[in-house]
Amino acid sequence: MLLGLLIGLVVGAALALAIYIIINKMRLKGKKEQILVEAEREGEAIKKEKIFQAKEKFLQLKSEHEQFVNNKNAQLREAENRISQKESALGQQASELSRKLNDAENAKKSLNAQRESYERKSEELNKLTSQVNKQLETVAGMTSEEAKSMLVENMKAEARTAAQAYINDTMDEARLNAAKEAKRIVISTIQRTATETVIENAVTTFPIDNDEIKGRIIGREGRNIRALEAATGVEIVVDDTPDAILLSAFDPVRREVARLALHQLVVDGRIHPARIEEVVAKVRKQLDDEILETGKRTCIDLGIHGMNIELVKLIGRMKYRSSYGQNLLQHSREVANICAIMASELGLNPKLAKRAGLLHDIGKVSEDDPELPHALLGAKLAEQYKERPEIVNAIGSHHDEMEMTSIISPLVLVGDAISGARPGARREVIESYIKRLKDMENLASAYAGVTKAYAIQAGRELRVIVGAEEVTDEQAATLSTEIAQKIQEEMTYPGQVKITVIRETRSVAFAK
């Protein structure tokens, strides 16, 4: 019975499960049909919407295409109108050109006719001129070429005489107007500038207390003095001169190094080759510092500021250089003051003139480009260290080795001449001095018509005597200018040289 009950329960459960499955299938089928209906309905709506959108897009594209076609048609019409206008204008220009060509042809024919008429008249005129010239030659007794030559020579002589007279008048007028003012400025400048006379030479005397110190300086078998000469490049002369040793060298810097080194060695008492080399090296360093300090002090004394440190060192080195025995630093300071005074008198910039005057000889103390003249080398250095163009030109042109383009350049030239030409400024070796005077006299004597030539006033003036029969007054004036130009080009001399040409006529008669 229990088994029958279990079997009934199982069969009932199975029937119930089958009924549930059938009911679910029927429910799902209904939902599926409903979903399909709704999907068909939504698809139909989407289809209608897309068709509507496609129609709208088509209408929009059609409108845009019609507008584009209308615009292109309008542009084509405008282009056709412009082309029509240009064709009309070109037609008018073509007709105008045709008219002008016709006018030009007519004018050409007229000109040809006028030219033919002119040529006929020219031939007639030439014939008449030839006849008149023949008649004039017959009357005058000379050909036309001879008359032309005579006229040209007469005109040349008159022009030469007139030119020389004009030159003489101009020079006289310039002297009358400028001499007084120039003398006042130069005299005032010289009076306001007081400097020492030259005492520099190529030998420095080193004093010593006794012969024992002299022996210690010489050293055993002369080793100390040889070491000192090798270290300094100075010849040390030890002779019988009491209480003194001579230091000989053309380079003042070397002499100063040797003097200071000897002084320190004598004070210290230790004199041997190793100590000598040590002291010389130390003194060189001290001298470099002193050179820089000298340059700075010079710039401060003259009121010059903002100068490159390398130029300041070159200014300091001027203290140990000389020109014709004249100390270069003193000469440059003197030129700077002279230029500043003259600039003030002339209403120019005195600071600029003073700066140019101080730097005008820096080329003499530079060790670069020894083949260049010192004026051009100085201008190159000034330009390298950013000095103003006016100063560069004044430095380069103070010996006429560069064309003057600055207003202060003549001041530097004149200041240099005044400083070097004043009495006591410079000293020359007697042999070179005499040779310069003889060369100057020989140069003047080489000119035709010169009978005698004398260099006077220590070479500052050259008197040239000419023969009155060979040289006229006009030629004498020209001769002085030519001699001055040749001396300036071929000779080297301090200051300036005055050339005076003397021509006199003597008439001698005897009463018997």
**Helix and strand composition category:** mainly alpha
Q: What is the share of helical residues?
A: 55-70%
CATH architecture verdict of the largest domain: Orthogonal Bundle
Strand content: 5-15%
Task: Count structural domains.
Answer: 5
What's the number of helices?
A: 14
Largest sheet: 3 strands, antiparallel
At the fourth level of CATH, the homologous superfamily of the largest domain is: Hypothetical protein af1432
| Number of DSSP-assigned strands | 8
N- to C-terminal separation? Answer: 217 Å
Task: Give the overall shape.
Answer: flat
Order of helices and strands: HHEHHEEHHHEEHHHHHHEEHE
CATH fold field value of the largest domain? Hypothetical protein af1432
What can you tell me about this protein's structure?
By secondary structure, this protein is mainly alpha-helical. It has 14 helices and 8 strands. The strands form 3 sheets. A 3-stranded antiparallel β-sheet has the order 1-3-2, covered by helices on one side. The protein has a 3-stranded mixed β-sheet with strand order 6-7-8, with helices on one face. Helix 4 runs parallel beside helix 6 (273-302), helix 5 (252-268) packs across helix 6 and helix 8 packs antiparallel against helix 9. It is flat and about 205 Å long. Mean pLDDT is 79; it is low at 196-200.
How are the secondary structure elements laid out?
Blueprint: H1 2-140, H2 144-192, E1 203-207, H3 211-218, H4 223-232, E2 235-237, E3 244-248, H5 252-268, H6 273-302, H7 309-317, E4 322-323, E5 326-327, H8 328-345, H9 350-359, H10 374-384, H11 389-396, H12 409-421, H13 430-445, E6 450-456, E7 461-466, H14 473-490, E8 498-503
